[in-house]
Amino acid sequence: MEVLNMTSERIITILIPFPKELDVNGDFGNIQTIQRRLTWYGYTPKIAVWQGGQLPTNIDIMLTGGGMDSGLKAVYPHFTEHRADFKAMAADGVAMLLVGGMYQMFGRSFMLDGNKLEGLALLDVTSGKAPEKYDGNIVAQSSRFGEVVGYEIHETVTKLGPTATPLCETVTKGTGNNADDHNEGVIAGTLIGTYMNGPILPKNPAVADYLIEAAAKHRYGSFEPTAKPENFPVAAFIDNARKVAASRPIMQAARI
């Protein structure tokens, strides 16, 4: 842990794994949101890209996007090779956003290309094939973050294990983890897994700030912003975007 110096750059290092393979639903917007909000809070974001081999060091936050099956198949061996490293990062308090297929991969098991594969087991969830394709707007209620809005598109379902806590306890529009439990995503310490993409963070600043605070505490032991989020230049725009997103109708689930 570094000593916080308000006159220094106050660097926060963001790990971006396989940006080409894991950005199919606009998830690059999550990176832009974290970068911009870190800057407004008085920190200096530093990007570290990982495309296999040795993992970069001194990581404070990892942002993964969703991927097509072909992309997930390509990256799976690299993630499993470093299973112990990712577990150590999580135990050390590194913040992680895991979207779509990466949410599944960081669980206990998941389906890929018709095969059941062992996950990294950082999240107490299991994922399998869905009877329907879930494609549409989603609105959910979270006791921690309030109303969370986004877009989901997945052909899988995820079940939470006994030690898992949903990111959102109640889905009011859309499907989320599955059609039976009416919850969405999972939160485990500084890790967040979700089916919300499109991306999730620009319209949900409370979620973004949770990850930012975790990243700052990981690096410096505390989060000491130099500005308040209500004074950010996009605050009013975000509020309006959230209202528009929440008002959109859900699309009908399509039979596969």
Automatic annotation (TrEMBL):
Native organism taxonomy: Bacteria, Bacillati, Actinomycetota, Actinomycetes, Bifidobacteriales
Molecular function terms, GO-annotated: carbon-nitrogen ligase activity on lipid II; glutaminase activity; transferase activity
Gene: gatD
One Pfam family this sequence matches: GATase_3
Gene Ontology BP term (one): peptidoglycan biosynthetic process
Membrane-traversing stretches: none
Assigned protein family: Belongs to the CobB/CobQ family. GatD subfamily.
EC numbers, comma separated: 6.3.5.13, 3.5.1.2
Assembly and oligomerization: Forms a heterodimer with MurT.
Keywords assigned by UniProt, alphabetized: Cell shape, Cell wall biogenesis/degradation, Glutamine amidotransferase, Hydrolase, Ligase, Peptidoglycan synthesis, Transferase
Residue span(s) of domain CobB/CobQ-like glutamine amidotransferase: 29-204
Signal peptide (from-to): none
Function: The lipid II isoglutaminyl synthase complex catalyzes the formation of alpha-D-isoglutamine in the cell wall lipid II stem peptide. The GatD subunit catalyzes the hydrolysis of glutamine to glutamate and ammonia. The resulting ammonia molecule is channeled to the active site of MurT.
Pathway this chain belongs to: Cell wall biogenesis; peptidoglycan biosynthesis
HAMAP family: Lipid_II_synth_GatD
InterPro entries: Class_I_gatase-like, GATase_3, Lipid_II_synth_GatD
Protein name: Lipid II isoglutaminyl synthase (glutamine-hydrolyzing) subunit GatD
Catalysis: reaction(s): L-glutamine + H2O = L-glutamate + NH4(+); beta-D-GlcNAc-(1->4)-Mur2Ac(oyl-L-Ala-gamma-D-Glu-L-Lys-D-Ala-D-Ala)-di-trans,octa-cis-undecaprenyl diphosphate + L-glutamine + ATP + H2O = beta-D-GlcNAc-(1->4)-Mur2Ac(oyl-L-Ala-D-isoglutaminyl-L-Lys-D-Ala-D-Ala)-di-trans,octa-cis-undecaprenyl diphosphate + L-glutamate + ADP + phosphate + H(+)
Domain of life: Bacteria
